[in-house]
UniProtKB/TrEMBL annotation:
The keyword Transferase applies. This is GNAT family N-acetyltransferase. Residues 129-265 form the N-acetyltransferase domain. GO terms for molecular function: acyltransferase activity, transferring groups other than amino-acyl groups. It comes from Mesorhizobium hungaricum. Pfam families: Rv0428c_C. PROSITE patterns: GNAT (PS51186). It comes from the Bacteria. Keywords: Acyltransferase, Transferase. CDD domains: NAT_SF.
Length: 265
């Protein structure tokens, strides 16, 4: 599949290309739901008081041609973000288009945290000899494990629990544990023929020991048995160890996105 880089946007993408991007973007919204969602034209404004993640607190443009009254709409969105105590942030996929990018450039918006969307046909997943692993049913137990391996603020527990509880497609909560010690965690969201992998992390004390790889393979086997035909994930473009792992498993880049903010925020 051809790579579509948000950093290499052409003024016009073929409709078939944008349709592929929209498919993954919609799956991502369903798999990692924001607490509040507003629409301004084809901009999806996602806000979440209980969790600061950028993908849960950002404007997501879905049509390159929707660039009317930009200053007014950005100001309106800014008031929403201010009410939530979040910095006004755009998440720029290829669906954002070149015209909006030029406008933000002209206004001095900074660009940061480029990420990749990667995919792999599950026919390529070598899971035949992988031990079956049953996902956790206890959200609280999973959240405890995830906060540990991410070395995250315990105050995020209520927000992360709310997000996981709000996932509408079937979600498998996977954790690799040694006794009571969490080693790695991930969420696999089975949505039709797609299996999205989210929040993948390994505790820093046991990295490069294969725990993440084995957990991913267990999740892919679980999803394939449920009818998923394609796995996909999002990863920061400068995360070299993760990119190496995903490439070794057979994942390939589909497109990129990045975030934009005013320097003062």
């Amino acid at each position: 599949m051809a790579t579509i880089g948000a950093s290499r946007l052409n003024p016009i993408h073929p409709a078939t290309v944008l349709a592929k991007v929209r498919r993954y973007e919609a799956a991502g919204f369903r798999a990692w739901p924001a607490a509040a969602v507003h629409y301004d034209g084809t901009w999806v404004v996602r806000l979440t008081a209980g969790h600061p993640a950028k993908r849960l607190n950002s404007i997501n443009p879905l049509d390159p041609g929707d660039v009317h009254h930009l200053a007014e709409r950005i100001a309106r969105a800014g008031r929403r973000f201010e009410a939530y105590g979040r910095p006004l942030t755009f998440r720029m996929s290829p669906l954002a288009g070149a015209a909006l990018s030029r406008h933000l450039d002209a206004e001095g918006w900074s660009r940061f945290d480029e990420s990749m969307v990667m995919r792999m046909p599950l026919t390529k997943a070598s899971v035949e000899n992988v031990i079956d692993q049953i996902p956790l049913k206890d959200i609280g137990r999973f959240v405890s494990a995830a906060l540990k391996v991410h070395d995250a603020d315990p105050l995020l527990r209520p927000g992360l629990s709310e997000i996981i509880g709000a996932i509408q497609p079937e979600a498998g909560l996977f954790a690799s544990e040694r006794g009571d010690e969490a080693l790695a965690t991930l969420i696999c969201v089975h949505d039709g023929d797609l299996a999205g992998l989210f929040d993948i992390a390994t505790d820093k004390s046991v990295r490069r020991q294969g725990h993440g790889r084995q957990l991913i393979l267990s999740a892919l086997k679980w999803a394939r048995l449920r009818g998923a035909r394609e796995a996909w994930l999002q990863v920061e473009a400068d995360n070299a160890p993760a990119l190496s792992l995903y490439a070794s498993l057979g994942f390939e880049e589909v497109y990129r996105y990045h975030y934009r903010r005013l320097p003062s925020t």
